[in-house]
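Hi W.,

Here's what went into the run:
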Amino acid sequence: MLVLMNVDASDEQTQAVCNRVEELGYRPHPLPGATRCAIGITGNHGAVEADSLSQLAGVAEVIAVSKPYKLVSRDMKSEDTVVRFEGSDATVGGAELALMAGPCSVESRAQLFRVAEAVAKTGARFLRGGAFKPRTSPYAFQGMGEQGLEILAAAREAFGLRVVTEAIDHESLALIDQYADMIQIGARNMQNFALLKLAGRASKPVLLKRGIAATLDELLMAAEYVMSEGNYNVVLCERGIRTFADHSRNTLDVSVIPAVKKLTHLPIIIDPSHAAGKRDKVAPLGRAGVAVGADGLIVEVHCDPDRALSDGAQSLYPDQFAVMTQGLRKIAEVVGRTLPEPRNVPAVVAVAK
Amino acid sequence: MLVLMNVDASDEQTQAVCNRVEELGYRPHPLPGATRCAIGITGNHGAVEADSLSQLAGVAEVIAVSKPYKLVSRDMKSEDTVVRFEGSDATVGGAELALMAGPCSVESRAQLFRVAEAVAKTGARFLRGGAFKPRTSPYAFQGMGEQGLEILAAAREAFGLRVVTEAIDHESLALIDQYADMIQIGARNMQNFALLKLAGRASKPVLLKRGIAATLDELLMAAEYVMSEGNYNVVLCERGIRTFADHSRNTLDVSVIPAVKKLTHLPIIIDPSHAAGKRDKVAPLGRAGVAVGADGLIVEVHCDPDRALSDGAQSLYPDQFAVMTQGLRKIAEVVGRTLPEPRNVPAVVAVAK
Amino acid sequence: MLVLMNVDASDEQTQAVCNRVEELGYRPHPLPGATRCAIGITGNHGAVEADSLSQLAGVAEVIAVSKPYKLVSRDMKSEDTVVRFEGSDATVGGAELALMAGPCSVESRAQLFRVAEAVAKTGARFLRGGAFKPRTSPYAFQGMGEQGLEILAAAREAFGLRVVTEAIDHESLALIDQYADMIQIGARNMQNFALLKLAGRASKPVLLKRGIAATLDELLMAAEYVMSEGNYNVVLCERGIRTFADHSRNTLDVSVIPAVKKLTHLPIIIDPSHAAGKRDKVAPLGRAGVAVGADGLIVEVHCDPDRALSDGAQSLYPDQFAVMTQGLRKIAEVVGRTLPEPRNVPAVVAVAK
Amino acid sequence: MLVLMNVDASDEQTQAVCNRVEELGYRPHPLPGATRCAIGITGNHGAVEADSLSQLAGVAEVIAVSKPYKLVSRDMKSEDTVVRFEGSDATVGGAELALMAGPCSVESRAQLFRVAEAVAKTGARFLRGGAFKPRTSPYAFQGMGEQGLEILAAAREAFGLRVVTEAIDHESLALIDQYADMIQIGARNMQNFALLKLAGRASKPVLLKRGIAATLDELLMAAEYVMSEGNYNVVLCERGIRTFADHSRNTLDVSVIPAVKKLTHLPIIIDPSHAAGKRDKVAPLGRAGVAVGADGLIVEVHCDPDRALSDGAQSLYPDQFAVMTQGLRKIAEVVGRTLPEPRNVPAVVAVAK
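Here's what came out:
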């Protein structure tokens, strides 16, 4: 259920509608747009008594939403969502493409600082790195935990990068909400609804990766879970789907980008590393991602990938990442976007704590 | 890494090997077989110093395991695992096929008791019913929570059934471990490794459903997560996979049953309801499941499916379930199995609490 | 477009409707049922002038068909089609399940006669064997061609079996229509529409295998191609679909059987050999096929599979096939079907021509 | 089996090796490279007597090929194949990207000439258009047949375009080899081996589309069928694969491009129209195709798509195609390629014959 306010409706009128929605036992989500305000209503299993709302002052229209998602829908909010980060020029969904890069796992302060320096030099504004790793095998390296988060936070200060890292349960999510700038929900947890609800109550933006066999509707419903709890800063991520094709680790579904742009106002980025599975395919897939209209890329970069504790085979060397970024700059122009410029980075000594 | 003890090795010798493994910083899992004991070793990222183990008294052989799973493997334990339930004749993996039935969700005491009575009369020994529901939409019925567990526990007492119900996070899992007899991990959480580890520390057997796009290796690795924490009572469940085929909700992958039987000692049952998505296909798929060699079935049954709060379209009426069970009895014979006999059930009044 | 005649309509009335349809430039397909006759109309790209037909004598109703297929539909013919073979008790789609067995390829007269004798002893009424082989590699054995067909025809005479063999182009199809009893269209040619049209003009029944990635609608449309040319004796065959699952060669889609039974009057059999890819999974899948309601099985059997020129790994030994058949007999009862009884076969000397 | 000649081997030496191969009963395929000549050997089911070849004059090495394909492999020919067209600057696989465009079906002379003029103006050198249409329904428009080929040939003369059109059986293939410049084998016929062999004996280059569920190996083996008959001018085409994803008609598998480039010397182009299924996604997918490294695009363009007899929904308007082409020009630069320049086209009156 969606209430569209008049173009000239006052803030008081909007507030009065919200109050009435709450009296009915539902939850209002005011979403100011460029020209008018819309109010999403959630918590209603069936039809809300629309009559009582349509007669309130300032209401233009009450729309019954047939799609199972509401808050993520372009019907509710036609302008693109731009996710912003306090104290930084970094955005996701704006004119500038978001570049996120870094190692699969944080392995040590020295390892992370080396990569972070290289990443910062290319102009990328986001540093990725896992501290809690969801590994297929219980016997594989499971991440450094809170210590890894401390190292990530130190690198943020040193290089002026926003930190993106994955949460796997309620404990890690609470820590990440405190240490990092963006909470990643991995592909395997895309329908871990308990975790999605917690992410919806967190203070930081959420990077939600598409599950390996998730339909577009399921991806949007997962985003809806996060938004329905009040966190509207959600960024989607396509990272390849599982098909019969055996020549790449996963099949990067570039078609999902224009489909997402049509249905939702949320940004979507591409992860070419997990789709490729092999270093030599990362740059071609990254180019395809920008060309098809994604809002950014998240790329695995490691200074010594042959010794990486996870995902080494698909990690780029820093200079490969820099070269790829150059090529992306021209493609970005074709789709009306920009890339952040390379910048000077102060020499930082990564003293082990 | 796997240590095979001699056929005549003493318990003391086995204990000494376990002690040595712990000194090395790893975790031993003694698994007694019919003729000899095997000791699985987990926690070793690379190669354990095998030499020091192969020279201990009573050791027949030290085997480097190439498959990523160890504890689930038939190499480690050649006899079929039979999961037993204290104070009950119910088993999973024995000569008698396990029949689990009940509604998708617990909706009320009256609703559950009506179904439970019908289920018990067919001879089935397990009652299924969800109290915590992982729903695709945040606005759909999410289950009765702990109150639902209380109703399930009451039905267990009234009808002598074992209760199977799904956990979705650490809180629900702790409650289910206390109220129920078997902890279900749903398909969407098959790679929620944090939850799998918690299930591995629980006291009750685990029913682990295959993810909608999980390979057989991934399913076995998920079971390995549970077992690596010390809970060896794991039952697998095939419930259909996601394919291009659009004539059924999911594609029931019957081929996985003989493949599972070859690789692991763990039992596997089939869920024809979620595969079918429609009531009229449940019985044919259930027959196929028994014919192909599954250790049991889990079936959705509801007395008034048109008014069910979830999954009504795929729920059988009680008399359809009873008829299906009759047909299964003859097919079970062909594969050398039995079905529990129908039994008299005392009239129970489902007084609302 | 479908014309339903009255229950008491005369043959003359039916003929008059057919004549009118032809005058309109379309093609009539009279399909007599148990209680009344239906007339399918094909060749109409859009709507036929229904008014002119509905007013003719004996016409009960004119139905606009929304599904893209017409002749295959149960709407047009509600009774199950039973495919019969002149001079034989063999049927497909009747009470007796159709058992088809034999080697992947005809390799020699001696090889085929050994298998044919074993097959005939189990009671099976159909002999399979390829003379024209569609091989993935141009360098692999491509079949014996017409010489293979001569050997098949000789085996038919010697053992009283109906012969099923695959056509791959117009030349092989013409030969098979002359030598054999049933024309197989393989999975790779399911949408070779030129070949389907030729099969529709042939005199022998057609066994149409589902393509590896064909939806149910596409399978039915392929059958429609054959029927639209006038050959109404079409038998469908499920032989596994391509999915991400890597534990079997293909994923046997048992759910398609009840779905086919609902939409079409045509029979459908199962090929467990190509689905399994490995000998030890053929019998379990065959049992699942009968249990789910298929009208028969087609199974690869070879007396010396390790030396087979194709598909050896998935071919059963004759005694394995005989044992499997015994188990199927009991499962057939559960679904209200029978299996042909074992029979004595005269000793035949397979003199090389 | 592959024979590598010395860098300085004479033509006579190469010929002598070919003669010897023929004496052994196999077929030699000399493939001259930039620095040396390789000779592929086909027709050998097992191992050729390599010794007798390795001792011949001018032979550097005899390599046993483990991959099932030989002639398509980069091991046999390391330089990229550039397919050329007599009397034209058009190429596929060279520095200039190949642009192929036109309607799904030839519907009339007027329709085709209008599109052809628009296509030629953008600079594209190839005109596509179907005269024999493989349609899912036997009741749908099946193409204009030979009359359509005559119209295509007339448009070639009028606008200086190379004509690409699809063959569906031996009759249509013979006609197309006579009328057109490139023989398309459609996705549904990718494993119609009888047709592939005929294409291998034709005089014109072959455009081979990947089957909807074909693995990369299967695609390469299909190309091997064509090449093994002596036609080495094969161009591959990715047009989307069948997956569970329902937001596009097919899933465009961009990852296959770098994988193809690694394994084979053959060019590969992308068909964004069939992958998209909807007009508004064609340009983004086309951009992704060029960015990922494809050798060209084949695009459906129609002047009045709402009235097209087939595939109207996915056909671009001519001006949309022109705009898309402009964007591709800049992306081509990033991957070191060029696009043909727009050109003036003489006004042509499409007089109906």
